[in-house]
Design goal:
By secondary structure, the protein is mainly α. It folds into 2 domains: 72 residues, no CATH class; 226 residues, MetI-like fold (Orthogonal Bundle), CATH 1.10.3720.10. Helix content is 78%, strand content 0%. The longest helix has 36 residues. The chain is globular, with a radius of gyration of 24 Å.
Length: 313
């Protein structure tokens, strides 16, 4: 097991290196000049040139990249071009809301989607199965921002059950903390539930045709035990795989959801940094997202070996 985990960890190094290189080049080669944004509309070319020199943007791209990599090697993500605050501190201040939203979304989605998928497979061909599949299609089809504004209109404005926007930390009370996360969690969970439910249904439905399932039925094992102990357990590997794939959807959805609900997290920070051409912030946030995605997939790879020991061989 230790050798397997070490091998996976070493494989993440070139992945992160490629991500860093691509992000750096895309930002530097795309149109727009952060020095011009900082200088303002009435700035002279001399002022813009002076700001570019002070920020090091006038140096060759290769020199800028080497300097940035050296900073990363020393644990320094750089300094924001606009706020002049360390990027690590800025990301740290925005990390809490995003982490809270991600945890509630993943937890809610798994608790809802897995039972739905199992029931749909168990009742294959019935109206229950068709309803679950119809909900999955709707979940994939409706954009995240449309869902967000729909929840706001229905539950916040009309019914006044939850706050419209904003974020409250857990230190200010668990009740207000959860109230502000309900609508964003529902918004992000719809597509996540649709994805996991469809994969759970397909995997469990395939397992239910196996010989050992018929043998369990012949021995008089209860339907609930067959579904949970035999079918769901053996279908767990593809379900865990799709949960890892869904993390990518979650990361993309966070950007839109936090903007809709005015949550001061990494998604909203990314949008503000892109509009302001704040290179260090954009690079730092993308690296954090990439590292999180790689680590989550590493955890899923390790979970494979626990669910099916044959994989490690």
């Amino acid at each position: 097991m230790a050798a397997f985990v070490l091998k996976r960890l070493l494989a993440t190094i070139p992945v992160m290196a490629v991500v860093a290189l691509v992000v750096f080049l895309i930002l530097r080669l795309s149109p727009g000049d952060p020095a011009a944004i900082l200088a303002g509309d009435a700035a002279t070319p001399e002022n813009i040139a002076r700001i570019r020199a002070s920020l090091g943007l006038d140096r060759p791209i290769f020199v800028q990249f080497v300097s940035w990599v050296w900073q990363l090697a020393n644990g320094d993500l750089g300094t924001s071009l606009l706020s002049l605050q360390p990027v690590a501190r800025t990301i740290g201040e925005s990390f809490g809301p995003t982490l809270s939203l991600a945890i509630t979304t993943i937890t809610f989605s798994v608790l809802v989607a897995v039972p739905l998928g199992v029931v749909a497979a168990w009742k294959h061909g019935t109206w229950i199965d068709r309803c679950v599949m119809a909900l999955s299609v709707v979940g994939f089809s409706v954009p995240v921002f449309v869902l967000g504004y729909g929840w706001i209109w229905g539950f916040a404005i009309k019914l006044r059950l939850f706050p419209v926007q904003g974020y409250v930390g857990p230190r200010e009370g668990i009740g207000p903390f959860l109230e502000h996360l309900v609508l964003p969690t529902l918004t992000l969970s719809v597509i996540f539930v649709a994805l996991i439910a469809r994969m759970t249904r397909a995997s469990v439905l395939e397992i239910l045709t196996e010989d050992y399932i018929r043998t369990a039925h012949a021995k008089g094992v209860s339907e609930r035990r067959v579904l949970i102990r035999h079918a769901l357990r053996n279908a767990a590997v593809p379900i865990v795989s799709v949960i890892g794939i869904g993390i990518a959807l979650l990361i993309g959805g966070v950007v839109v959801t936090e903007s809709v609900f005015n949550i001061p997290g990494l998604g909203r920070l990314t949008v503000d940094a892109v509009l302001a051409r704040d290179y260090p912030i954009i690079q730092g946030v993308i690296l954090v997202f990439s590292a999180a995605y790689v680590l989550i997939n590493l955890a899923i790879d390790v979970a494979y070996t626990m669910l099916d020991p044959r994989i490690r061989y």
